[in-house]
Amino acid sequence: MTNLYNKHAVLACEGWSWSCHDPEFAPLMAGALVIFCCAWLWWSMKFTKINPPLPPGPLGLPIIGNLPFIKPELHRYFSDLSRIYGPVFKLRMWSVLAIVINSPSLAKEVLKVQDAIFANHDVPTATVVGTFGGINILWRPNGSRCNQLRKLVICEIMSKQSLDACYVLRQREVRRMVKEIHGKVGSSVNIYEQLSATALRVMMSTLWGDDPSQDLIEFRKRLDEIVITFGAPNVSDFFPILAPFDLQGIESKGKEQVSWFYGVFESMIKNRRNIRDDGKEKENIRKDFMQQLLELHWRGDEKNSLSINEVKALLLDMMVAGTDTVPTAVEWAMTELLCHRDKMTKLVKELDMVVGNQNTVEDSHIPQLVYLDAVIKETLRLHPVAPLLIPRVPSKTTVIGGFTVPKGCTVFINAWVIQRDPELWDDPLRFHPERFLETDINYRSNNFGFIPFGSGRRICVGVSLAEKMMALLLGSLVHSFEWGLSEGTKPSLEDKFGIVLKKTESLVGIPVARLPNLEQYQ
Q1: Could you tell me whether strands 392-393 and 120-121 are parallel, antiparallel, or unpaired per DSSP bridges?
Q2: Are 512 and 189 in contact (CB under 8 A)?
Q3: Closest CA to 448 of 32, 78, 115
Q4: Cis peptide before 68 (omega within 30 of 0)
Q5: In terms of DSSP H, where are the helices of 430-462?
Q6: What does the pLDDT look like over 442-483, one tens digit per residue?
Q7: When you count CB atoms within 10 A of the terminal residue's CB, does the N or C end of the chain come out lower?
Q8: Which fold is adopted by the domain 144-521?
Q9: Under a CB-based contact definition with an 8 Å cutoff, are residues 137 and 314 in contact?
Q10: Hey, where are the domains in the chain?
């Protein structure tokens, strides 16, 4: 179902990387179609007798359902349908029944009131191959081990003490970004490219502490390949019966890509193990995430330790999640600030007051930068990086909003439309950070009108790190430079739907140094 995140939803075989006319696959496809014809008839008879009924929704075609009518910008398409069918509606795509939630009250039902039922994520077939059967945090089924892993990561890896210990690594890479941009003063700078490279360096430094310069290009290439592979439409997700055949080769390609990362991790883990075995651990101790994960592995306590495969899966989790979402959010924030110069001026004044023009932005400044925090929250309200969050799968049939939600269906929560609800937000389409100065809404509150990182027991475990990174990056860009645009240009606010909600056009700005001392750019 995650293949819906690819904007090229297809009706039949034209969009796939295999041909329907290939004689090798024709018998399989013919058999699958017969099976699904029977399944469709059974499905139709079964669900027409449900009480309460299924949610309303647009009419579809036999067998393939609504698939040919789905529009590329899925978050906006769902928003349009909600105006017709209400806050909860259904769609059917081949064998998949999708339920879409579009209101904060129903999101609360899914994420809090009945969160135990909706605690499982919809797991794409291809991702299982690359995560040792789904043992990482994102795709692991809800249960005691999932809860233990989340607790270990939140309390040990994402704790304040741990994040503070890695601060010097984050700061080093942000200062490197500032230095690189300073070398391009007066010229056009692709802001996303700068942010993306910095986020990757930060994650690599935070994970294993070494200077990652020599591996940066290869890592970026490999990460891009993984996102493309796992975001591609996969026939196995629509036809589970065909999954063992891997008709498009997506699973095998994903396995090869992920194996490269696991090979890199294994080499690093071996080096750490040798240091430990030689008794030199204290001399060579590194305050990075890999070391902390390995120490959890070496504990040997089943309840409070990690297997070596879990260590590698978690490392890859953090690499993929941390290198795209943060730069995307900061690029959106810079875009909004350049579209609203009065907000930019207000943020600059706060930075000058708290940080001063003789210093650089530090983690210690962030708690005092309340308007910076409000700008980031308002950006994530209007431009949530995961507009539909991670789809959920109910573990049993239940009722939401007076309608039946069957066990095993896919449930989308449209955070993009919920966070623009005019009943919750005054002038909801306006970029107005001040609204967050008048409330205590945060990323972990029980306000279901603001859920950019999800909520409940499966809320993103990396919220704390993301908060620090977004503030440090955005604060440094605005504090260090005045930003202009090429003459006659205006930043585009158009987005393109995907696993991450990115800008259609990358933001290109022209920086001018605003700090008095050259040392502040070194």
Answers
A1: antiparallel
A2: no
A3: 115
A4: no
A5: none
A6: 998 889 999 999 999 999 999 999 999 999 999 999 999 999
A7: C
A8: Cytochrome p450 (1.10.630)
A9: yes
A10: 2-123, 144-521
C-alpha dihedral sign at 173, 175, 180, 184: positive
Kindly report the CA angle at 423 between 455 and 420, in degrees rounded to 5?
Answer: 60
Count CB neighbours of 259 within 10 A: 13
Inter-residue contact 258 to 127 (CB < 8 Å):
no
Extract the tokens encoding 316: 């890859």
Are 150 and 461 spatial neighbours (Cβ–Cβ below 8 Å)?
Answer: yes
Interatomic CA distance for residues 416 and 100, integer angstroms: 12
146 is in an annotated binding site: no
The type of residue at 391 is P
Q: What angle is formed at CA 9 by the lines to CA 4 and CA 11, rounded to 5 degrees?
A: 130
For residue 470, what is the enclosing H or E element?
A: helix 463-480
Cα distance between residue 333 and residue 336, in whole Å: 5
Total count of residues recorded for the chain? 522
Contact yes or no for 48/41 (Cβ under 8 A): no
Q: Could you tell me which residues come within 8 angstroms of residue 247 by beta carbon, excluding any fewer than 6 positions away?
A: 16, 18, 25, 28, 235, 236
Distance separating alpha carbons of residues 190 and 175, to the nearest angstrom? 17
Q: Report the distance separating Cα 70 and Cα 245, nearest Å.
A: 27
The answer to whether 499 and 227 are in contact (CB under 8 A) is: yes
Residue 485, Cα to own-chain centre: how many angstroms?
Answer: 29
| Residue-level pLDDT at 21 | 41
Residue 323: closest CA among 436, 173, 431: 173
Contact indicator for 185, 518 with CB cutoff of 8 Å: no
Tens of pLDDT, residues 249-291: 888 888 888 889 999 999 999 988 888 877 765 555 556 889 8
Using the 8-state DSSP alphabet, how is residue 61 labeled? B
Three-class SS of residue 490? Answer: coil
